[in-house]
Amino acid sequence: MKIFIDTANVKEIKEVYEMGVLGGVTTNPSIIAKEGKVFEDAVKEITEIVGNDCLIFAEVISLEADGMVKEAKELSKIHPNIIIKIPMCKEGLKAVSRLKGTGIKTTCTLVFSAAQALLAARAGASYVAPFMGRLDDIGSDGLILISDIADIFAMHDIKTEIIVASTRGPMHIIDAAKAGADIATVPYKVIMQMCEHPLTTNGLAKFMKDWESVPKK
Ligand code: E4P
What we know:
about 50% helix
C-alpha cells in the first residue's frame, strides 16, 4: 500500500518526501484554506517540490458538472501529475464520466458507502477516496467500508484504486493495508507516529550510551 500525505503544508511535504516514502500529496478546500495561499499557487508550489516523483491531488469547487470539468481542465495544466478530486454526487459522476478518456485522471472524494464507490468506479474514476476517520467519528465502522470496497473491486476486477482518506492514527493505516486498500493518505502527525516506537527510542539511547564506554582510537 502506498503512502500519501494529506496536507498542503510545504514544510511537512518536504520532510516526508526526503524520507523517501511519499507517493503523493492530497489536498482539499479545507487543507488549502489552512495555508492562506491562492489555490493555484499552493498547488503549483507543491508540484515544484514533488511533481516529478509524486501525484498531486487538487479538488474542484464547482457543484455542477460543467464547472467541474472546466476547473479540472485548468488545474491539469499546472502539471502532468495532477489528479482531479471531484465530490461524490450526481453532478460529480457526470464530470468524472466526461473526463474519462481525456487523459485527465479523477478521484471521487467524500465516499462514505460501498454503493457510492461502485458508482464512482463505473463512471470512470481512477481513484475512490472513502473517508475512514469521519465514519469512525460518528460511531460507524470505517474499516468495514474499506474492506467492502476492496472485496467488491477484487471480485469484479475493477481497476479503480482505493485511497483511504481521513486517517487518524497508525492503526488506521495498518488496518487499511490489511483490508486491501491501494493507498492511504495520511496527516503529517500520523506519519511521524508511524515512524516511532518506544523500544526503538530506548534501544537507540542505550546504543549511544554504551558506545561512550568503547575505547576510541
Ligand atoms: C482526503 O483526501 C481528505 O483530504 C482528507 O483525508 C479528509 O480528512 P479529515 O476527515 O481529517 O478532514
